[in-house]
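COMPLEX REQUEST
Ligand: zinc ion
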Amino acid sequence: MLQLPRDAPGSDVCNRSGLPLLAICPNRHRRLIPFRLLKIREDDRTPLYGRPFKCKACGSPEVTLFAIESRSELDAIQQAMAEPKQAAKAPTTHPRPDPDKGLI
Ligand SMILES: [Zn+2]
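STATUS: Structure written out below.
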């Protein structure tokens, strides 16, 4: 995965075999943006970030764009996005370690 710089022109993401871009918002929502929705041509020098990207989950316009570099990377991302969210942070029965412990 390749983070796209803020000043990247639209043409930077051409010739990527039509792989979608990945947008991640400050709240870590992830969303795939199909390449065809970007309406970019090879001679497009307008900034990629000039398009009105927005997180669908929380509405934040502050998304960071990543270029997906291969079909297998896309598969892995789609799998990760399809997993149920609660699996990532299942409640634990163990008490959390006291962050202040050992400071005194
Ligand atoms: Zn969001």
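REMARKS: Residues 25, 27, 29, 55, 57-58, 60 surround zinc ion (CB under 6 Å). The first strand starts at residue 2 and ends at 3.
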